[in-house]
Queue: 2 jobs
Job 1
Amino acid sequence: MSTTTEQFRIDYRRDEISPPYSGVVHFWFTSISSIALITACLVQVSNVTPMEWLTVPFTFLYANLAEYWGHRGPMHHPTRGLKLIFKRHTKQHHRFFTNEEMGFDTSQDYKAVLFPPLMIMFFMLGFGGPYWLVLSFLATPNAAWIGVAVAVAYFLNYEWLHFAYHCSDDSWVRRIPGVGRLRRLHRDHHNPALMQSYNFNITYPVGDWLFGTRYN
């Protein structure tokens, strides 16, 4: 580990991680709250038509492009009203993890990867609620519930994959089919020479493929 990265990690743990913080609790809060909301949405669904099932690929593509542009935009460029996101991602996350040092040292380091609980709640309420209203108005209640369930599932998939990329090199998660390849794409994104230009999808490189920003 370079001296610069090591010192930043020391400073980050001292200044940004409070003693009561538990990375394990943070991980399970993210997982359980997301699964609970997905379940709550799906139990509202019944007698789904083929047209309503089209909400699944539509929402997946929408979420993937939102991930792409959110990452390529405010997460890497200071934007009015969203500077905290830029700070957390570019100024902190990319300095805590580089392409040469991708792994957690302890569970306390989970904070440098997982979204804060308040941001998770904002996402679920601030995005899920309006999305349900739009789909309910333009399509059907079934489509609305399915859409929100898929959106939250995509968010959880984002968190789990991003978490997996930053597990240690010898972690069992690297043996999950497909994770190793996606991790390599994300590792290249953490190369300081590449991070402003390539591999902005953290999950599946659909946006990178569409807009010509996939590297390796």
Job 2
Amino acid sequence: MDLTTWWRWNPIFEKTPEQWGLRGDAFLWQALAGFLETEPSPADPAGAKAQLSARLWNLLDPKGADSVRIDQFAHGGMSSGYVHKETWRARLEPLLLQNIDGEFAIADQRQQEFQAFQEIVMPFAEGMFLKSKLLSHTSLDSAQAEAVKSSISVDIRKVGDLVVPHLRLTDVSVAATETFSPTESFTCGQLSRLTWQQQPGVDPGRNLLILEHVCTVVSLRELVLQAHSGMEIVQLLWTRMRLAWITRAEDEKLTELGYKKNRPFPLVAYSEAGIKIFDHYRP
């Protein structure tokens, strides 16, 4: 098995800086993760670093003014939407490059985590692959084809139920954490282990939070339909599937921006909607 099968960009961005430069920096950090997770896995630290730096400075033209406003990341407050290039050169990019070294240093552990994921997901992945092949049969009418697609969507959701939070913690938006007052002592860490079935215990009526697929089920299904094997489906679910607790207001913002069902770059959509999942307060 290719060593790079264990690679995910998400852990690289989980360790955030103690201080940003300008307000847009946190949203660019998240969007950068969103662009990178759609790219091929790197073979080694040097490749990962080159990939990250190339994408970063493609988003941030190294020439011109040191402070650049990205309109999509303007969500209010002083310096709203502004990104500080020197902060990225001096602190943020070096931190991400350091995180890459740290991730490759624990490659054996990550490989074991991937194998545990593969063991549970492969039966579903093989089933989804066979169903995708069924769709190529011209004998299926539109209703039958829709039934097959719906079945693949169900499989994707069930994989989520199996691996989150048991093998992978749920992401939590900053606003979702802030929804609960400090006196309730319900932390981000606790939310990250909260399941949909347990939600009514802390959110009666499910009035405050929504558990959603960051890369939507529809988007994941389209990727599944393009896969050439069950193993390829395992790999794409490993790298692209994540669940997140967000607020109802955040969900409405995603819908308003046209991201209800399709998000080619899910974390970029989150940044555009003002949703942050990495930038949690660290005491």
